[in-house]
Amino acid sequence: MDAVPEKWLPHVLAQVNDYDVKVANVEGEFSEHRHADTDEFFLVLAGRLRLELPDGNVELGPHEVFTVPRGTLHKPVAEPGTRILMFEPRGTVNTGDGNEGTTGVVLP
Amino acid sequence: MDAVPEKWLPHVLAQVNDYDVKVANVEGEFSEHRHADTDEFFLVLAGRLRLELPDGNVELGPHEVFTVPRGTLHKPVAEPGTRILMFEPRGTVNTGDGNEGTTGVVLP
């Protein structure tokens, strides 16, 4: 699991107005987190991503998409070899509003 | 060429804040146009897209991306079987600021 954090590091691929288009090679579990001020869009380019949400899990294969609504806790979990694309307002931190690397963040 | 316009009809796949994520099956030539108020982001999911721009052409294959800056004329041309994803502010019209279906639109 030591290599996982680097696996989730997003790279800005393009910019659209004040949004960034980011890609990341992902694998294993990422911190559960939420973004109070923005939705977060996921597109799977390759592999398989599971978004664990309070109301259930969303499973995404290649070219499947999901928008996590603002304020919604979500824990991304990916199979090896997964590559995802995200749209987010510039400056959005991928660990959300909680402490980096903490799981189960629930903000007041 | 009669079937081409329907080929370029975008469908909203997801929403992210006040942006739409759209997909379209595209083939052949689309109107040259520009958007005065917004960048336009293209991601090729399958096939091949050429964006003809004043300074030259951009050729995109699967999972390649390009952002057309606001105000920049562009004419999309696609091979048969091409599928693209776009990211735009909600309400953006795909023919831009010119007359629908007109090619070579140059606004004052």
Automatic annotation (TrEMBL), chains A, B:
Polar residues: bias regions: 92-102
Q: Which domain of life is it from?
A: Bacteria
**Gene3D superfamilies listed in its UniProt record:** Jelly Rolls
- Residue ranges occupied by any Cupin type-2 domain in the UniProt entry: 28-78
Q: Specify where the region named Disordered lies, as residue ranges.
A: 89-108
Q: Which PANTHER family does the entry link to?
A: 16.7 KDA PROTEIN IN WHIE LOCUS
**Name of the protein in its database record:** Cupin domain-containing protein
Natural source organism: Streptomyces fildesensis
